[in-house]
Every structure is written in structure tokens, then in C-alpha cells.
Amino acid sequence: MKRNAVSAGWLSVLFAGLGQLYNRQYVKGLLLVLTHAIGIYLFVTKLYPDLKGLYTLGDKGQHLEKVGKLFKNVPGDHSIFMMIYGVISLIIVALFLAFYILNIRDAIFVGRKRDQGSEVQGLSNNLFPWLLLALPILGVLFFTIMPIVFTSLIAFTNYASPNHIPPKNLVDWVGFATFKKLFTMNSWSDTFVGVFSWTLVWAVLATVTCYFGGILVALLINQTGIKLKGFWRMLFIIPYAIPQFVSLLIMRNMLNEKFGPINQYFRYFGLGGLPWLNDPFWAKVSVIVVNMWIGIPVSMVLVMGILTTIPKDLYEAAEVDGASAWMKFRNVTMPFVMFATAPILITQFAGNINSFNVIFLLTGGAPATMEYNNAGKTDLLVTWLYKLTLDFNQYNMAATVAILLFLMIAALSIGIYSRTRSYKEEDMIQ
Amino acid sequence: MKPRIFFSYVLLILIALACIYPALWTIMSSFREGNSLFSDTFLPKKWTFAHYRDLFVERTDRQIPYATWYMNTLKVAVASMVLGTLIQLLTAYAFSRFRFKGRKPMLMMVLILGLFPGFLSLIAIFTILNTLDLLDSLWALILVYSAGAALGMFVAKGFFDTIPRSLEEAARIDGASHMTIFARIIMPLSRPIITYISLTTFAGAWVDFIFARAILRTPQNWTLAVGLWNLVDAYNSTEFTLFAAGCVLVAIPITMLFMYTQRFLVDGLTAGASKG
After folding, report:
1. A216 touches chain B (CB under 8 A)
2. According to a count of CB atoms within 10 Å of the terminal CB, is the N or C end of chain B lower?
């Protein structure tokens, strides 16, 4: 008794909507037939040429042509336009494929229901959530998915200044050449290795200092015998309340070598001022310290929240056993805090790898150096690729770095998710 | 007093000083005469409001249209707040309340796409807008801020999940349509989450620098973040007192918003920990 399901399914394979018509869902069927027809029309007239354009990226750049007696500059193919339309077409084709498959599945599903003699649901009931989701899906499609696809594609082209910037020149597919260049060409690979290792050092130091700093401050406030706990907490949260870009720009002025107040105080106490932002080593110290100023309040709030959840009886039991304050801290507080915050620690590490604001607004990647290609001594991979895009028009290299960076963070994130699950299953503290 | 407590207080006071010093110093500088970064004393020798007035007076010898920047930022933040909140609520509501075909894979999609960091799309957004000649418009920035809002819908979905379904069912029996239920029953109940989402999206757009600098090219279109950054970067701190006054005015609304949303803070931070 599968007659209806089979025939409806095959009819919908033949042409979307036919199966639905066969199932006597006339409005739905007609709509689907119409959609399929529009799809075919679009494919022939628009999508196919666009996809072809995505493949070739144009074959004639801006060139001189003889018009009458004069040579004139004639605009040629614009590779990036072709890429944009190509990617959009690719997405539309993918949507059509999804629509086509759903249409077949729907025909079979409804057909089976008819075989079993059960009632078939109306159209409008299933449509409402999609109506709600239409706008969000469009937004995500064009401002998240398409850019990600586009960036990934750029990494495999030679789209970069000075020789391959449309409309003057064409852009071509070059396969993995950009990746190869990044790793083997000295000027690029030196920069990459240098910036990459500083990114790692930075991420580790920034995470560790903020994390333990936060724990320390939280414990400091939470000691028995400290009064006005809420007052201290509120004071210490102030750095978190000020917009980051404001406080970072202020810090940049405070650390000014000649006129900044920090060096002024140093001189007041008879010490020479330090080149906070102008010397590679001190610039690195500065960004870490400023990052502590910004990051510790967050960890502090977090740890204070956790401290209140530690059961009191644990401490009481420890006291009965004659534990000292240090032993209580070492064996009750610390394990509890560590356990509860470990996943956040890894998330913060991943966040610090991409910590754009602190570096870009404070030092701008400076001090500059001759050793690096378009990067300074405090540049992270993120700020480097930002500069490559906006200031130096090295789009393909920026995209390549972005992909590598993303793979790194994705691996880390997957690690986090599997780790947190394993934590849950361990069930050590509950 | 025990020495341990005494030292703790000393440490607390030192940390407190470090926390508030930059803010205090900036406020003091904004009231100081002259325009230099350097000052002998912490408190201004002569107090003046001139810098605050200067911010709103257009001068030909320097390109600091602060009032315009403020309006731009306000426009961008309000528009992205409205659009972003709407998109986020719609998405969260659809995923929380309906069991439709393709829901599970779509949820998975949202999770995965949420992992992709902004810089990955930045290069593409910049080149696409550049090629299409759409750079340097506030609307482009607003679209960039709000279009991806759907990906942050998990907090709102969690909230909608807690609203009992019996409420809707009762309304449905009384003949209410989907739209009526959403507008008349769910929305009034969701005021706290709507407040939270709109405030965070507002603040996010208010303080963003990365996309604002990439998209807005001319001083007339800058937002405060780009403008103030440029003030430090290009003027090399020669207009410092003016910059300080500008900073104070930017920070006030956000700091006040923050104080208001503080109670959400701990929940928001710890939410990630238990999500697993």
C-alpha cells in the first residue's frame, strides 16, 4: 500500500509540484510548479552565466580598442563583480536544490499519509515559523554566509595590490599559491611566524594574568573581616563599565612617553621615564598590563559569583578537621573555582587570540619594524589582517591569514565543547 | 586589626586607585585650560567648560565635527538596536515555539555560524561594499550590525522556552491568530529580555570600532569611536583636553546603561559555562 507515496515522489522528481498536485494539494502544487519554472528560467538567463563568470573571473581586462581612428580605453570584465554575482548565484542554486529535495520529501510524506488514510495538514500552519524566519535568514545569508564563502574564495585568487586590482586588471584563480607564498617567501613567512608566535604568547599571558588576577581580587574582597564588600566590588567594576575604546585611547595618552602622567610620576620619584609604547619590549608589557586593567573585572565578577555557590558545610567540615586558612583555600576554594571556570578559561583564551581592540587602539601594532611585512612588533594576526585589508589592499593574503586563524580557533572551540561534555560526565562536583 | 586584614585594605585601596585613576584624570583634564596632555597638577589650576563648548562649535581650522559624530553614532546605535532586536526576537520565537521541518539542522547551523569570528567576514564585507560603491554609508553599517543578530538568539530562546505553553493554547482556543499571540501575549511577558537585548545591541553598536572604521571613510560620516581614535592618531594628542571632554560625553550614556544592566551581568557571563 505505498502507491500514492511512490507516484507522488516520482512526479515531484520530474517537476516540483506535480506530486503535490497528484496529492490534491492544488494551491501548494501550483506554487511549487511556479517556483520551479522561475528557477529554470533564472538558471538559463542569469545564474548559468554568473556561475561561468565565477569560474573564469573574466577574460578581458581594461584594454585599448580601436574605435574609428582613435584608441580608446574600454572597460573590461570586473573580476570582483563577477565573483560577487557568482557567489550569490551559487547560494541561490543551493537554495533551489534544498527546495527541490524538500519538495520531493514533502510529496512522499503526504502520499504516505494518504496511503494510511490519515488527515493531511493545511499549508498555513507550517508556514508561520518560516514567515518569522524569512528576514533573519536573509540577513544571515547575505551578511554572514556569503562573506565567509567570499573570503574563503579570495584566499585562492591573486586579488592584491598593486598588480591585480580591478577594474584595471583581472583577478585569477591561483590555487594554493598564496598559502605557499605565506609559508615559503621569506618576507611573508618571517612576518607570519613572528606575528603568530607573539599572538600565542599574548593569548597565554593575557588569559593567565586576567584569570589569576581576577581570582586574587575576588578572594581579597571576599575575606572574612573585610567590610563594605559591595562598595569594593562596585569600584573594581568601573573599568568594565567604561566603553573599551574610550579607556584604551585614554591609556594610550597616559602612556605617552614625553607628556603622559605615568612617566611624569616616574620622574617625580626620580626615575627615568620608560618608552611605554615605542620600544618593542615595553610595548608588549604595556598591552599586557592594560589588558589586565580591562580584563580582571570580568574574571572578578565571575569568580565572586562562583564563590557564593561553594557550600558552607565544606568549610565547616574542613574546620572540624583542623584545617588552616591556607589549607581551606588550597583544598576547597581553589578546586571549586578552577572546576567551575575551566571552560571559560579556554573561551577567554580563544577570545584573546582575536583581541583586536586592545592592540589596535593602544599601539596600532607599533613599534614598526623593518623585519616584518606591513606589521609591527605588537601586531596580532587579527590586527595584521585588518591592516592588510584596509591599508595595504593585500586581500588574498589577508584572507589566507583569516582562514588559518579560523581553523586554529575552530579546533580550539571543538576542543572546548568536547571537554565540557567530558567534564559533565565526570560529575565530580555536584 | 590583624596585619593580614590591614595589608588587604592597603591592597584594595591601591587597586581601587588604579581602577578609577584613568577616569578621574580624564575628567580633570577635560576641565583644564589649554590643550596639552601635560599638566603639573592633578587638579586643574583653572576650571573651564570651554572644551565642552568647543566640541559643538564647528571650526574651519580643524576637522572635528563632534556633534555630527554624536548624531551618527546615535542613529546607528538606535537603528541597529531596533532592527537587531526585532530579528533576534523573531528568530528566537520561531525556534522556541514551533516544531517545523528543518528546525534541528537550522539550530545546528546557528551554533556553527556563531563560531565564525567577525574578522572572517570583514575582508569580504569590505571588498564587496567597496566594489559595489556602498562604503561610507551609515545604512551599510547598520545592516552589518543587525543582519547577523539572529546568531545571538540563544539567550532569548532560553527565555521564551520558560513561558508556559498553556497560555498560548488558551488564547488559541479563544481564536487568537499566530500574530495576535506573538504581539499580545508573548511580547508583554518578554519585557525583561527585550530590555536586555536592546540595551546590549545598543551598547555594542555604540562602542564598535572595527567595522565602523572599515566602512565609514569621510569625517562627516564617522561614528564617535572612529572620530575619537582619529583625534588621538592623527592629531597626536595635541588636542588632548578636547579629546578628554569628548570621551567623557561618550562614556556617560554607556556607563549609565551598564550600571542599569549590571544585574544581568553575572547571569550573562556564567551562562556560557553551563551551556556545555
Report:
1. no
2. N
